[in-house]
């Protein structure tokens, strides 16, 4: 059963472009990972600093391995600097 991840981010004031750039840079390397079925960031049109990433992974192990990759470790450092509040990560499976 696949695992869907919804991650919600809010950029600090003035950091909106940096957040968007960091999340967009995650698309290609994430999609190249074994077990990544989809990876797509979205921007809230009513609050440009709010972004949501919707990901689908084959299983929890694939997601756990994603968290150990160099590109994830890099974006984590960027997010620590640009986010106004901690990221919210929801892990979902089909009902």
Helix count, per DSSP?
A: 4
Element pattern in H and E: EHHEEHHE
Distance between the termini: 11 Å
Question: Strand portion, in percent?
Answer: 25-35%
Major sheet characteristics: 4 strands, antiparallel
| Low-confidence parts | none
Radius of gyration: 13 Å
The helix/strand class is alpha+beta
Shape: globular
Strand sequence of the main sheet, in spatial order? Answer: 2-3-1-4
Q: What does this molecule look like?
A:
The chain has 95 residues and is α+β, with helices and mostly antiparallel strands. The chain contains 4 helices and 4 strands. It has helices at 16-24, 27-31, 60-66, 70-82, and strands at residues 3-10, 36-44, 47-57, 88-92. It has a 4-stranded antiparallel beta sheet with strand order 2-3-1-4. Helix 1 packs antiparallel against helix 4. The protein is globular. The model has no long low-confidence stretch (mean pLDDT 96).
Secondary-structure blueprint:
Layout: E1 3-10, H1 16-24, H2 27-31, E2 36-44, E3 47-57, H3 60-66, H4 70-82, E4 88-92
Antiparallel strand pairs: 1-3, 1-4, 2-3
Helix pairs in contact: 1-4
Compose a concise summary of this entry.
The chain has 95 residues and is of the alpha+beta class. It contains four helices and four strands, in the order E-H-H-E-E-H-H-E.
């Amino acid at each position: 059963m696949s695992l869907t991840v919804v991650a919600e981010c809010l950029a600090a004031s003035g950091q909106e472009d940096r957040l968007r750039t960091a999340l967009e840079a995650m698309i290609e390397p994430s999609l190249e990972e074994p077990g990544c079925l989809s990876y797509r960031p979205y921007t809230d049109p009513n609050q440009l600093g709010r972004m949501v990433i919707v990901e689908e992974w084959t299983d929890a192990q694939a997601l756990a391995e994603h968290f150990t990759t160099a590109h994830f470790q890099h974006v984590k450092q960027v997010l620590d600097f640009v986010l106004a509040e901690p990221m919210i990560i929801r892990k979902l499976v089909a009902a």
